[in-house]
């Protein structure tokens, strides 16, 4: 089993609430840190001081871009450099990179990827040219962030153009494992219908950080059958606290331990069904503590 790895908590459960209240709750729940990245309001030194005031450390932050759009490439590469440089100043050696634009683009199917969430068809995917540009741009991002001392860890997400296990396999085969690493999300893999344990076994050596989420399988199955969109899945309670859904976390952590994993594990419950984000954070932390983490 994993030992001595930092356990962080993402602020997404506190969406719309005060940042300092989120950090206070995360600290009170026994986490070591929370995600951080560049800020227009603070310098990296000020962010470090803020986190330290709550007894927390910065954990890897989240960089999103439409990597398949050639007209955005120069801007994406510069943003990635800035993000990585700020991450390095925060003492981080990894950052999450993921796709954006869930509702902005209509695919060949006539649907957005948000509409196709959890029930993706081949017609919902990128065409060959866009996919090729995606992989090439992601390789360049990886090279740029490594030059700043920070690994780009690709992050899967339901409702994005890289959602399914097949899309992840295709992207990972098309990118350089020496510059593009992995920061997978267990909940998004499960929601997409992927074999979560199989994915972690195949790519364990490439995984440098991970988001741990859990899902309600009954909600997933109902939503797939009824072809819900992303928002409807969330409104019906797709998310569960870690250890309270369908995912086999002891097996996942054993796979990572066997691979020598020593990065950040970040808990996220995007939308909790519990009374408050604080209660949600405490429930997930108690479960992981029961596993020795």
Provide structural commentary:
Helices cover 41% and strands 12% of the residues. The chain has 293 residues and is an alpha/beta fold. The chain has a single domain, classed as TIM Barrel. It has a four-stranded parallel beta sheet with strand order 4-5-6-7, covered by helices on one side. A three-stranded parallel beta sheet has the order 1-11-8. Helix 1 runs parallel beside helix 11 (277-290) and helix 7 (196-203) runs parallel beside helix 10. The N and C termini lie close together (9 Å).
What is the structure about, briefly put?
The chain has 293 residues and is an alpha/beta fold. It has helices at residues 19-28, 44-53, 73-89, 128-147, 165-174, 186-191, 196-203, 217-226, 230-235, 249-258, 277-290, and strands spanning 7-9, 33-35, 57-59, 62-65, 94-99, 151-154, 180-182, 210-212, 214-215, 239-240, 265-267. β5 (94-99), α4 (128-147) and β6 form a beta-alpha-beta unit.
